[in-house]
Amino acid sequence: MTDDLLHQTASTQEITIINDILDNFPHLKRIIRPCDSNTILRFDQYAGYIPISRKNDICESKIYEVLLGSQVIKRWSYQLTNLERLLARYPDDYCNPEFGEQLVGAFFSHYREIEVYDDLKMCEYNPTIDPPIMPNLHNSKKADFKINQNGHDIFIEVITPRLPLNDELLFEEKPKAGFIGSGEREDIFFKIFNEYNHHFKPYEPQYKSPTLIILDKTDSLGISDAFGSHDLSKIYAKYDFPDYFIGILDRTRYNTDILYKILNMPRPVRFSLNPSYVDHHTLLPGLSRNFIHNKAISE
User: Fold this and answer.
1) Model's pTM, two decimal places?
2) How confident is the model at residue 61 (pLDDT cuts 50, 70, 90)?
3) 83, 111 in Cβ contact below 8 A?
């Protein structure tokens, strides 16, 4: 793999197309720099080169590739329109250069985070963005959100998994026969447990706040069926989660964004409760009523 492949800058034609499309999104244009001759395209967030021939079926990570691809991929076009709407709705929280830089670096994960923020607001929570997990500790890791339920803080981490590039390239328009199976199931289980391990486990036993993981596999290269064919509750037999860990909410969208928008269909939501979670009676009823089963969790 050569440096030329890893550092392919935008062509004059691509720059024009990207910036013309960007002009349609004034809030987005306010927080990201225009595409120019120094903008690197087709550089995946997992540091892998995306072949030009596959640019339409591999979920690129930078917002410039999303802008360029939105001409032919309706889901990306809808996501940009929805992002503009959410930036206008939450100017103080998200319409800023810091969030713009995050979109430039990894579009899909941060797009899903602002969606979750909107879900929480629609459920009448007042989420804190990027709260430190241990506020009194210098350089504490941060969760994605913190909400308050019945006087208790609940930390939320959003996961938008993707396969490593080498595994992505095993998929063509349809997954290869025989490839879907326990490998993907174990892979997603590991990603979830690793996220808990990375963010929260280092601070135990001092850290005991109720914690929820929100999983969204919508952007997993169109192979959500592979990621979605498993029973998330089986993760608890394989990995040990602490008793403060509430569970996993799977908000993956199995059809297109446009379909959910047009038909006003609720997002397919599945919740897998951690059987070791200790505080069912205090937090779970309100959380379930307000968020897990709330109709606001939709487009």
Assistant:
1) 0.81
2) low
3) yes
